[in-house]
Design a protein that fits this description.
The protein is an alpha/beta fold. The protein is built from 22 helices and 16 strands. Strands 3-2-1-4-5-7-6 form a seven-stranded mixed sheet, with helices on both faces. A three-stranded antiparallel sheet has the order 11-8-12. Strands 9-10 form a two-stranded antiparallel ribbon. A hairpin with a 2-residue loop joins strand 15 and strand 16. Helix 6 packs across helix 7. The chain starts with about 25 loop residues before the first helix and ends with a helix. The N terminus is likely disordered.
Length: about 500
């Protein structure tokens, strides 16, 4: 009998992550910054949606019609559950790629996204996907794709091979994937303790294995233990996509756009001498030792004139998604930590401090009299986006239209948070996507939605939920034992939530 998993880990669910690179609003900002026209997205598709958080947030928070598949039936069932809660009408399937990509009812798409799929599937499935891109992505349409990259994985790839081979050869199948993972890591540690020549030649492997050991086992199962695991050079990706008529547009990771954060002046000079886009990207990967690429590709990219680009950027709306005092003027690039100019960033952050969406043109108008010019504003927007402090935003009217769906979705997710902290996100109709919101913050919102008005009442509501499940708050790595101390900690968190995070969530139409 044929194995429906095709070697992909299916006996343990994927994590409940949200990936903002899949948000078409973010795509538009990045393409405009790169000087390229961005399509209006009316139809969109995600291949391999995992637990379905991203596709459901984007379907609920926008007017686009979303289609998606993930072949794991347990994940598809959960994704369909939350799709039903929002009523957004996302078309979700549990098809394998070959089955889904040949469905006759599929429309042509303005946008197709794949996050964390390409490196973990067979060449046969890659061929299915590239054929789908050729047939179903519209001219002018955008592909988002992410994948493990060489040369960054060259050092640790042999260690990954060791882990998976141990799981296959010595792991007991009946013990479950988590036990096989733990056994593989334990064996690898014992081997490295003997100081093998591989470790002497690659001393950073030991540190990398320590990081792996600390990671979520559900994540590790899907990241490392599939039958197919193929880090790829950028040039190989370009060859795979050549028949689709797609061309590389730009990185989907905002901080990659700011070269001084990642490359020395000498490295930038070498790249500037390389006219070929594909080879230039390959060389850049060597410069930063790239391990994971997140890229946008366009079918028939149209380069904007300087005037067109400036006008389109001026109309682009953005919103601060963190409290103004929490925004650090430090940012991390490939070269290490860098300081942002207070003279440029503080005036911009002051304009955005109320967490209301504004166009870049409106921000510039508010900055009259300051020393900040439009080019500095655009760069600041990209940096703040890359640091997770800022998001592209929809027009007020469209955000209000989407709120009914996101409210219903969030109510369902907050109810789930009563028993689990697995889902740490809620949907915003302002950003058209997800925002990180912790379990206790979700429970405070749930208490508030049920008529509890004061932080002390929210704390009591949450503590009663925890008591019925015999749960305790963990602080500084230790469980708080007494009931009084647990309630006091919840009251402290609720008071802090009311003064810092709640105003932001209200502005973003989450609360």
């Amino acid at each position: 009998m044929q194995d429906w998993t095709s070697g992909y880990v299916a006996d343990i669910g994927y994590t409940y992550g949200y990936y903002p690179e899949l948000n078409p609003l973010r795509t538009r900002l990045h393409l405009l910054h790169a000087g390229l026209a961005a399509p209006a997205v009316g139809t969109a598709c995600e291949l391999g949606y995992g637990q379905g958080m991203s596709v459901n947030f984007h379907a609920a928070g926008s007017r686009a019609q979303w289609w998606a598949t993930d072949f794991n039936p347990a994940q598809a069932a959960f994704a369909k559950e939350i799709a039903g809660a929002s009523g957004a009408g996302a078309h979700l399937f549990d098809d394998a790629f070959a089955e889904f990509c040949n469905r006759p009812e599929l429309p042509e798409f303005d946008y197709i996204g794949l996050h964390g799929i390409w490196s973990w599937i067979s060449d046969e499935n890659r061929a299915v996907i590239t054929g789908f891109l050729r047939r179903k992505l519209k001219v002018g349409g955008v592909l988002y794709i992410s994948y493990n990259t060489l040369p960054g994985w060259a050092t640790f790839a042999p260690a990954r091979h060791l882990l998976t081979q141990h799981a296959l050869a010595l792991g007991a199948p009946g013990a479950g994937i988590v036990n096989r993972i733990d056994g593989s890591i334990e064996f690898a540690e014992r081997l490295l303790a003997t100081n093998p020549a591989y470790l002497r030649a690659n001393p950073h492997v030991k540190e990398r294995l320590e990081k792996v050991k600390a990671q979520n086992r559900h994540y590790l199962a899907h990241e490392y233990f599939n039958a197919d695991w193929h880090p790829m050079y950028y040039a190989d990706m370009a060859r795979w996509l050549a028949p689709t008529k797609l061309s590389y547009a730009c990185s989907a990771f905002a901080l990659d756009h700011i070269e001084p954060l990642n490359l020395t002046k000498e490295q930038q000079a070498i790249l500037a001498e390389i006219p070929d886009t594909n080879f230039r990207q390959t060389v850049r990967d060597y410069m930063v030792n790239q391990q994971f690429r997140r890229d946008y590709w366009v079918k028939g990219a149209r380069r904007l004139t300087g005037v067109e680009q400036s006008e389109a950027l001026a109309q682009t709306r953005v919103v601060l998604v963190t409290p103004r005092p929490a925004v650090s003027l430090k940012v991390q690039g490939a070269l290490g930590e860098a300081n942002m100019s207070a003279e440029v960033y503080n005036p911009i952050l002051d304009v955005l401090a109320d967490n209301k969406a504004r166009s870049l043109g409106q921000i510039m108008e508010a900055l009259k009299g300051s020393q900040v010019n439009f080019a500095q504003l655009v760069q600041a927007v990209i940096v703040l986006s890359g640091a997770g402090n800022l998001s592209a935003a929809l027009e007020d009217g469209l955000a209000s239209q989407g709120r009914r769906q996101t409210d219903k979705l969030n109510a369902h997710l907050m109810r789930l948070s009563r028993s689990s902290g697995d889902i740490a996100y809620l949907a915003s109709p302002v950003t058209g996507g997800g925002l990180q919101v912790s379990r206790f913050a979700q429970l405070f919102l749930l208490a508030r939605s049920e008529g509890h008005r004061r932080p002390e009442d929210w704390a009591k509501y949450v503590w009663n939920l925890l008591l019925t499940q015999r749960q305790r708050i963990v602080k500084d790595g230790k469980a708080i034992e007494s009931n009084e101390d647990n309630l006091a900690e919840l009251q402290r968190q609720a008071t802090e939530f009311e003064s810092t995070q709640l105003p932001v969530l209200k502005a973003l139409m989450v609360a």
